[in-house]
Amino acid sequence: MSMAAESWAGVGSAIASLMFLWAVVCQYFPSHLDIYLSTYTSKLVGLVYPYIEITFAEYTGERLKRSEAYTAIEAYLGASSSDRAKRLKAETDRDGAQLVLSMDEYEEVTDDFQGVTVWWTSSKTNPQTRSISFYPAPDDRRFYRLTFHRRHRKIIHGSYLHHVMEKGKAISVSNRQRKLYTNSSNFDWYEYKKMVWSHVPFEHPATFDTLAMEPDKKEDIIQDLLAFRDSKEFYARIGKPWKRGYLLYGPPGTGKSTMIAAMANLLDYDVYDLELTAVKNNTALRKLLIETTSKSIIVIEDIDCSLDLSGKRKSEAQSEGGSEEDQKKAARTRLDNEESKVTLSGLLNFIDGLWSACGGERLIVFTTNHVDKLDPALVRRGRMDKRIELSHCSFEGFKVLARNYLGVSEHPLFESIRTLMEEKQITPADVAENLMRKTVGKDAKENVETCLQSLVQALKECRSKDEVETTAATETHEDKVDEG
Ligand SMILES: Nc1ncnc2c1ncn2[C@@H]1O[C@H](COP(=O)(O)OP(=O)(O)OP(=O)(O)O)[C@@H](O)[C@H]1O
Ligand SMILES: [Mg+2]
User: Fold this and answer.
1) pLDDT tens for residues 298-346?
2) Nearest-ligand number for the alpha carbon of 218
3) Which of 135, 298, 351, 420 could bond to 459 as cystine, CB 3.0-4.6 Å?
4) Nearest partner of 1 among 147, 144, 122, judged by Cα
């Protein structure tokens, strides 16, 4: 605090001591006098002490839930005071993954906002009376205290506190360890409740830079994702929940899962990997949805294998004919399916039903190897806003992989690789496998040569595009004959 403020603080503490004395004296006064005395004492303090103090306790309520305001202030002061405070304390976050800096107890820092100076102190009290509780109670009750001159009351209430909250929350989000969730239930001893999702730190290193893809297509996807992230007001204006559906399709090994990781790293989102076959029924699916947080990607991989979503469900198809016994059996199966399985309508509700709007800022990503097998209702525009085909490796894609894996952007073998890639079909996963360093002890140049030679050989052994097309046409014809 400044000199003036310090002397005021001195006056304040002198008055506080007087008040304490007063309280002791008051014990011997009749109770109706007591009320008069404390009212006049507060008024007196207000006249001589021009500072206002606001306290933010760490825990509020009976349930000992950590206060959001305290957490935001902690993050705000941790970031803004790290170069001003003389004593900081470092703690690991809940996952033990990284260190979080905050102001140490009984430390004080100043903050300037629009020409106004305020003082923040951190402190703690030790509760004398202990109640017996099932939940572990923290020994010390920590709190932050904000002190400012009363002539700045308007600016502090009107904008400073909002500024601290917003900035603190943003810092917490960027500092947080992102998580990869999976739907296997778990008991959280910290929050003391059953969790429908379990999680591990999300550490996939894929980025759009490391993704082999046509540059234009890649740029289009990046722009689409960034536009989504910054469109909170737009979605509110048009009256749509702030979410977007992506369908990634293509053969195995073309980078669908890798792209999801790149999306999460680009947007700084958590990932919820939803294993649909492990979900008991539609109600459980809805519960899972409600428990997801915003700034996240909900992923359902291999959607064609997760559910029988190819047109009519089996029980519906069966019920259309056959003997009475067959019909009864079909009805029983249908009932069973509806009670114990996730249905197509349950999944559609999950994507864009009323519940899907809770939380906001979420991407829903489906992946499949067989886009043609999916029910049209599931992938129609509006549900799946963007369809992205990931296909075999192009020469441009190969160049990205060569740069990342081998650190080269040109080589005499590139020309023959280009020619081979124009006629042969190879997945990025196969290209990547050939470019992995296989030789220990050899120098980098030799390694590049070995890897590229091995890729040329692999390409020569691959099927040509014409051959693949002819086989696909024959298979489609045979399928039609079988159905007929
Ligand atoms: N487009 C790509 N860019 C960079 N690496 C890729 C790409 N596609 C595949 N890979 C590499 O191949 C491996 C397999 O890719 P990935 O798991 O993303 O394929 P997928 O399309 O999800 O396959 P599946 O359909 O079998 O799930 C990855 O570990 C990655 O290293
Ligand atoms: Mg995959």
Assistant:
1) 999 998 887 765 444 344 444 445 566 666 566 555 555 555 588 888 8
2) 1
3) 420
4) 147
Q: What pLDDT was estimated at residue 3? A: 44
- The encoded tokens of residue 48 equal 């001589």
Task: Report whether residue 432 contacts ligand 1, using a CB cutoff of 6 Å.
Answer: yes
Pairing status of strand 65-66 against strand 59-60: antiparallel
Residue 278: its pLDDT value, please?
87
Rounded Cα–Cα distance for residues 97 and 276 (Å): 29
Percentages helix, strand, coil for the chain, rounded to the nearest 5?
Answer: 50, 20, 30
Pairing state of beta strands 179-182 and 270-273?
Answer: parallel
Give the integer Cα–Cα distance in Å for 110 and 132.
39
Residue 365 neighbours by CB distance under 10 Å: 25
Q: Assess whether the C-beta atom of 265 lies below 6 angstroms from ligand 1.
A: no
Strand partners, 120: 109, 146
Q: What is the 3-state secondary structure (H, E, C) of 306-368?
A: HCCCCCCCHHHHHCCCCCHHHHHHHHHHHHHHHHHCCCHHHHHHHHHCHHHHCCCCEEEEEEE
Cut 0.95: pTM above it? no
DSSP conformation class of 160: I
Looking at the chain, the number of H-run helices and the number of E-run strands are 19, 17
Count the residues in the chain: 484
213 lines ligand 1 (CB under 6 A): yes
332, 352, 273: which is closest to 306 by C-alpha? 273
- For the record, the structure tokens of 28 come out as 């011997």
The one-letter amino acid at 428: P
Is residue 460 within 8 A of residue 432, CB to CB? The reply is no
Alpha carbon distance 129, 25 (integer Å) = 23
Across 211-225, 340-354, 462-476, least confident range: 462-476
- Interface pTM (ipTM) of the complex? 0.98
Q: What is the pLDDT of residues 190-213, one digit of tens each?
A: 555 567 888 888 999 999 999 999
User: Whole-angstrom Cα distance, residue 268 to residue 173?
Assistant: 9
Q: Please give the distance, rounded to the nearest whole angstrom, from the Cα atom of residue 302 to the centre of ligand 2.
A: 8
* Pocket of ligand 1 contains residue 258 by CB under 6 Å: yes
253 lines ligand 1 (CB under 6 A): yes
Copy the structure tokens of residue 116.
């106004």
Work out the number of other CB atoms within 10 angstroms of the CB of residue 417: 19
- Distance from C-alpha of 86 to C-alpha of 33, rounded to nearest angstrom: 46
Q: Given the structure tokens 């014409």, which residue do they identify?
A: 466
Residue pair 315/334 in contact (Cβ under 8 Å)? The answer is yes
Exposure string of 32-69, with b = 16+ CB inside 10 Å and e = fewer, is: eebeeeeeebeeeeeeebebbeeebebbeeeeeeebeb
Predicted local confidence at residue 316, as pLDDT: 43
Nearest CA to ligand 1 atom 16: 255
pLDDT at 314: 42
